[in-house]
Every structure is written in C-alpha cells, then in structure tokens.
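Hi, here's the filled form for the chain we discussed.

Project: internal
Contact: R.S.
Residues: 154
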Amino acid sequence: MTFSPKLFIISDIASKVEKLVVHEVEWLDARVDCSPSQPTDEKIKVYEDYRMPYIHQTYKLTDKEKQCGKLNWLDIESTEFDFSKLENIPLEERLIFKLEEDFGLVFIHQNVTYLLKKGRQRRLGKRCIISAERRFFICHKTESKGRKMNHFNG
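And the returned structure, exactly as it came back:
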C-alpha cells in the first residue's frame, strides 16, 4: 500500500460520494480524534461517523521527479500542472487521485466537490471537510497549518 492523505468526510456526505467515486479508492470507517496530546478525560474529543477514502490512483502531472518520503516538497502556487495528460482518461478514473510526484497532494474533481459542498461542512481542529469552486481541488498537508487547500482549473 502507498501513503494516502487523511481526508475525513462525515458519513452522510460520504455515502453520496462513495457511489460516485469507486475507481482505485477504498472507503474506510474513520474516527477523528481532536484531543490535545495527553488530555484529561474532560478534554477528550473524538468524533465517530466519518469515512475516509484510501486513494490508490496516481497520475503524473508535472515534470518533477518522485519525492519518496519528502512530502509537501511541491510549491503548488508556482507549479505548472499539465492537465492535458488526463484528457484520454475516463472521468470516473480521475475523480479523486494523488499526484504521482507527491502522494501528499490529492486532486478532487468538481463533480465530487459539488457533492461535498451540498452537505454540511465542519472544521475539526486542523482537519477539514472539503469544499471547492473550480474543476480540481487540491488538498495537501502542511507542516504547521494542518491542511492547505488550493483550487485549479484543469
């Protein structure tokens, strides 16, 4: 298995997304623990009722080399993504995928983000429920700020 970023989606929304996203994605039950490290009993915050896509599908969209174990190496604001590489791939095979060059980057197609936006959104500590406005949405983990979200036309 490869690394897959943790994208937590509340179950009622995930059930709709799971019907659409089936190619190279495994859907897992998830618990979200937002407790501080070594919490007292009254500070424990665990949320049940979440699903998480374990993403196997990858595509290479840049001229960069694979960065094994060096996640978040890519400055996505200044990187040129070649979305034309996806043109001959059926839509159902590219609804959610990881960037081959960096498994920490996840691309989510607008058809999926539409379903996510329709549902309720909640922020759990530094973990986000996803929303987007353009064709692809990229979610990647940053060292100090939890998840960073960027939108790209592609």
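Let me know if anything looks off before we file it.
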